[in-house]
Design brief:
The protein is α+β, with helices and mostly antiparallel strands. It has two domains: 39-74 and 114-133 and 230-338, Ribosomal Protein S5, domain 2, CATH 3.30.230.10; 136-227, PDZ domain (Pdz3 Domain, Roll). It is built from eight helices and 20 strands. The protein has a six-stranded mixed sheet, with helices on both faces. α6 (286-295) packs across α7. The longest helix is centred in the middle third of the chain and has 26 residues, at 105-130. The protein is elongated. It starts with 8 loop residues before the first helix and ends with a helix.
Length: 341
């Protein structure tokens, strides 16, 4: 005779066994379900000396290294919230602070790697220019502003385009700045200036206005700016995205393409987006980058001038890593030249 379980026994068995298991399964899965929040954590610095190749015959090896600092960014889970909410080295960012409207995670990160590639080209051009190789082209230096009380006041005006200095062609704003900077003390410069569809000669005597270098007192931009690399530059950035490696890439390119020993045996870390004019621009994730650089044993950390105070405040206790504020690529090169080895 077959004996059947009492009515309702199957339901009770389901409640006792399968329902708890199901709840545990759902709870475990919830720990790994992405939330509308991003998790930002420090990432180990990336050595650039071996990751940057410059197609200059006899390109020098870097005496030291440059550390590309970055942060790791990924979707947070409930498990992350439970484990990391008291971690000082973790930041939780709302989705809208990271993703533009209508852009998915995959498209965003693909786009950031494209930004990295574009910024690496700009950085390569800036580094090669400093090494004496023409990599940035233009049709002259446009006068965007004239400083009151400067040598240019009353002689140059907004809209003028400087196309030559003492017969030397001026293609870019950087060309003009370099020619002015190299003027002997008390020496005159003959500027060929395009104004109202005519060229005229303007003679100025540069003098120090801020700092010790001679200046004429104009703010400039480059007309028809374009990048034209004269040699191949390859930058292996792995899966790093975004523009913030520009400053360190440019320094690595300069060190490899030029006779100068810029690193001088040091481990140099830093961050900063770099414009084609050589301006060092602010970036995100700065405190976490400072921490990872200090832990990696960096001697110097180059920080965008607008963020230098925050960078100094983020240096871990006991670290002797020095934070150097830089507003331009030229300032970074000059600062490193003055830093002891």
């Amino acid at each position: 005779m077959t004996q059947f379980p009492p009515a309702g026994a199957g339901v009770r068995l389901l409640r006792r066994v399968f329902l708890p298991v199901s709840l545990l399964t759902l709870a475990a899965a919830a720990l790994y379900v992405p939330l509308p929040v991003f998790l930002e954590t420090p990432r180990a610095p990336y050595p650039l000396a071996a990751a940057v190749e410059v197609g200059v015959p006899g390109a020098a090896e870097v005496n030291g290294d440059y550390l590309l600092t970055a942060v790791s960014l990924r979707r947070a889970t409930i498990g992350d919230l439970a484990v990391r909410w008291i971690d000082d080295e973790t930041r939780f960012l709302p989705v809208e602070a990271v993703l533009p409207p209508g852009v998915g995670d995959g498209d965003y990160f693909d786009g950031q790697r494209e930004v990295f590639a574009d910024s690496a080209d700009v950085a390569a051009a800036v580094g090669l220019e400093e090494a004496g190789l023409d990599a940035i082209r233009g049709a002259g230096a446009l006068v965007a502003s004239v400083r009151e009380g400067s040598p240019a006041e009353g002689r140059l005006r907004e809209g003028d385009v400087v196309v030559a200095v003492d017969g030397a062609e001026v293609e870019t704003a950087a060309d003009l700045a370099r020619l002015v900077r190299d003027t002997p003390p008390g020496g005159d410069l003959r500027l060929t200036v395009a104004r109202d569809d005519r060229e005229r000669t303007v003679t100025l005597t540069p003098r120090p206005l801020t700092g010790d270098a001679p200046q004429i007192g104009v703010g400039t931009d480059t007309v028809d700016l374009r990048i034209d690399l004269p040699v191949d530059v390859e930058v292996d950035g792995g899966r790093i995205g975004g523009p913030s490696a520009g400053l360190l890439i440019a320094l690595t390119v300069l060190d490899r393409a030029d006779d100068r020993d810029v690193a001088a045996g040091r481990t140099i870390a830093g961050t900063g987006a770099l414009s084609v004019r050589g301006d060092v621009e602010p970036i995100g994730g700065l405190p976490l980058k400072v921490v990872s650089a200090a832990r990696a044993g960096a001697d110097v950390f180059l920080a965008p001038a607008d963020q230098a105070a925050d960078a100094r405040g983020a240096v871990p206790a006991g670290s002797d890593m020095r934070v150097v504020s830089v507003a331009t690529f030229d300032e970074a090169v000059a600062a490193l030249a003055g830093e002891p080895a």
